[in-house]
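Exercise 7.
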Amino acid sequence: MVDIKYRNNTIADFIFQLRKERNLSFSDLEELTGLSRGVLHKIEIGETKQPEFKTVKAISPILLVPYKKVIECYIEDENRVDTLLEVLAEVITCKETVSLAPKIALRILESPNKGTEVSLERLFNFIQAMKDDSLKVELFKVIIRYSRWHGIMPYLAKGLFQKYLIIRLDLKQMEESFQEGKEILNYTDFLSHEEKITYYIRMGLQAFAIKKYEECIKLCNEGINLENRDTALKARAYLAMINSYSQLKHYDLVETYLDVFERFEYDFVAEAAKITRAITKARKKEYEIAIPLLRSYMNELSSKYKISIATELEIYLQTKDMKSIAELLEKEREFLPDSPESPHTNYGIGVYYRQKGAYQLETGLIYEGIQSFVLGMNAFGKINGNKEREECMNQIFTYFLKSKKQFDLQYVSMLKEVYNI
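Solution. The predicted structure, written as tokens, is:
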């Protein structure tokens, strides 16, 4: 790369320096770029102050500066929103220039050629159509900052909402994204009716995933009260509330809301209601009802619900039913999912392995028990379940303290690997 001192770093300067360094005529440039010498000459002498972007793209491959530098210079004086959107569409496809996307987005919003609301709407719609979620988040941040600074509440609300819908999907940042999502509570009046429903229910489902059960109930109730139709999302809101009441040990409310939940006509409802009723009986220590139900459901329900049944291994541990535990462990391949994605499923896997580990230690299978605890801790780690991981460690150390068995170096290595991951 030739080291050149530019006058003002404009496209005209780049053309001038290129011709000077390579001793090119306008005819030469015409042949190299496919652009007419008249067009090139007008740009260099400053007569064309805002060349079309397609013209700049045609010139850029032969210029003596990186393409990113060319784009940076071009957008300095470009105020046409249509053109800036064209540039934005270009830079997000190129690894070299993608970092310029937020700067171009801001230029679009600052353009004096369009009203602010119009520019915000066009940029917002552009971002919505993009595929790259991480880049969408960065561009929504531009909308959020600009809208906050200029007091444009509708787009502040919409930007925060769309950003939340993306960041909540990161299982390792669920607590952080939930806290960010709570800011939207201040701006719900600026969301559409449908956006409000989605916001409250999605936040409610996330609150359940991070064990904020009372907040889950409150948020889901808000969404349910706004939704007049029977939708799958509304049904899931009821299920999250039911499971939250179960965790809070309000079993009468669980059974009351189950009656409502069962009226929804979605594939997942019947099975979810069955397993929830059985688990509720188990939590109420009505084992004579719960155990037969759980056993029968292990055979008849679809695989995605079997992990919920398996986590009730605790029933067998409490009742010292070692035969039933052994039978359940033999069916492990039937209910452990291959690629768990949801926080609820990862949590269930963690609970299952923790309970399996406790059973194995109890029966003298120490190495196998530590292995199970490690698998449980890995599952909890996927959802940042630090408290659950600590509980696993406490169970292991409590066992060795009570049994007075030696804690071998190999166990230390196994547990250390969990934290390295």
